[in-house]
Amino acid sequence: MTTERYQKGLEVLKSVDPDSEERLKKLLKDIAPDMLRFIVEFPYGDIYSRPGLGMKTRELLTIASLVTSGNSPQQLKVHIKNALNAGCTKEEIVETIMQMAVYAGFPSALNGLFAAKEVLSEE
Amino acid sequence: MTTERYQKGLEVLKSVDPDSEERLKKLLKDIAPDMLRFIVEFPYGDIYSRPGLGMKTRELLTIASLVTSGNSPQQLKVHIKNALNAGCTKEEIVETIMQMAVYAGFPSALNGLFAAKEVLSEE
Amino acid sequence: MTTERYQKGLEVLKSVDPDSEERLKKLLKDIAPDMLRFIVEFPYGDIYSRPGLGMKTRELLTIASLVTSGNSPQQLKVHIKNALNAGCTKEEIVETIMQMAVYAGFPSALNGLFAAKEVLSEE
Amino acid sequence: MTTERYQKGLEVLKSVDPDSEERLKKLLKDIAPDMLRFIVEFPYGDIYSRPGLGMKTRELLTIASLVTSGNSPQQLKVHIKNALNAGCTKEEIVETIMQMAVYAGFPSALNGLFAAKEVLSEE
Amino acid sequence: MTTERYQKGLEVLKSVDPDSEERLKKLLKDIAPDMLRFIVEFPYGDIYSRPGLGMKTRELLTIASLVTSGNSPQQLKVHIKNALNAGCTKEEIVETIMQMAVYAGFPSALNGLFAAKEVLSEE
Amino acid sequence: MTTERYQKGLEVLKSVDPDSEERLKKLLKDIAPDMLRFIVEFPYGDIYSRPGLGMKTRELLTIASLVTSGNSPQQLKVHIKNALNAGCTKEEIVETIMQMAVYAGFPSALNGLFAAKEVLSEE
Fold this sequence. Notes:
The structure is a homohexamer.
Chain A lengths: L3 H13 L3 H9 L4 H16 L6 H15 L3 H13 L4 H15 L1 H17 L1
């Protein structure tokens, strides 16, 4: 059941979010247990594990995307944590979010900054 | 009329898009000539010129945002060109866009890849 | 005041959401009482009541749309309930939401699954 | 077949877009002829015809919404024309679109300005 | 440090949201203190302060944009308050939001109405 | 190189879009050849191939999602074709798109109808 892609994805995912597998397994087990496998395999096993971009840049790109769509505040906070775990500085994360004021507008950028503040105050 | 912010912004903008000022001036002169000043001053003079993130990363973040919103194909192509001018490799740009399949869905990522293909074939 | 369209719409709406009229009347009475009439008449009286698609399919399509826009979590939960009342199985609802990972990205699909989990645990 | 709402809506719609009924009838006749009725009745018969906001303000609000979503360039151009017909000045339309740079980002605002330029150059 | 643009923007901002500077300073001081300056300078100093549209219309346009994107409920409530402070009536605000049902769909319009209800009940 | 998931996905994809593999291979070969594999494997091999929803319903759900996001007109046309190939009637497709007027607004629904008209006139 655990494919090679799953193993590779899990390794990548755990490098930035160590307890993600347990957390997602618990959240998804009653509603869509297969979704855990898809999350580990496609985003992490297939995409994040590719060479060409380092994990720090990948997490900043994800923050840029989540601030732009603006409808997934929980996942934004998870990826702000993951960006810190990947070695991004607070400054790099804040700069990424501030830049989104240009492309997604000020309200979305402000929401992103408040999410970052919440994550950083919990650390 | 040309403020210090305008001069600073123009320098940053021209470093990745040398003929942008002339092009935007022409495009905007009959409809909203002040907009040129705002574009140079706020996005470039205030944001892109900040330390904390290099120009290469900033252009990739912009590509991530534009692929996510998916409604500005012309500006996406401009920023793919700018990313190349900032020193990003084709591979870094393609990886950025492919990662958006996870966050913005496959159709938006595919549109981003086709935009990149068009820009790269023109170079 | 209650038009034929209102009566037809109300019948359709009550078939999937029996206490909707009272609930919406209460929610809207101090702010926009006419909005109740528009909701019953246009979405339900004009659209949902059309032949060509059954109520089960219509509710799944609405779930697909609400997971894609991702900015109306309350209405998404209402329509997950309505889909169950229309005769959709848990499996059909979960499959609908999971498919949205392809088109709206994983974070929006995960939010949809968590909404479904909440509705199903309340039933 | 033509209800009172249709007549009221058509009057409002024709006041800003005189040939809209013929144009929409032609565009929709082979695919969804009923859609014409819904467009005239709900947006124009039910909403635009309400007191409380004048037609000029309503058209500017629609431009703000269409620049924000950014995915309906044809309808944006139609509503820029309608705003002019309702008595809005070029300046009011341009200011509306420029303000969207704050909320929807610069690329969406620029696309709106280019749409306005195209409409104004055709007039 | 406080530029002319900042002073002009602050005056405009305070005319509709008197304690905004203190509130934003507090919210942003630990995460992105420079963002306060950008908010005051660009949206208020550069855009809202322009002639061509009055403050009432500008606040209604912002409400239209925020209901359309639908992902910034806090800022929507702030701008509903600001619209009231600018002299908009409850009716004008409600009409603006109801019109968005046509362009952004019923769920987004309903969320806007509930936000307005909350603000109005607090006043 | 062609995994079991690829084979399963290709079979599902070809059942609704027979020449998709060749078309996508050609479109992607110079820019992101691996993307073809991801498209076949994840959306089709992992998701569309799941039991619980038939292909007709899946294609209508995809149309609902693409009309809602509104930024991928080419993929919308591909999926309207695929829906026809899966056995959906013109009426079912048109009803799906019209229902989106309620959730994504009239402009997005109109764009969807015009896309459907184009596809149907080519058949």
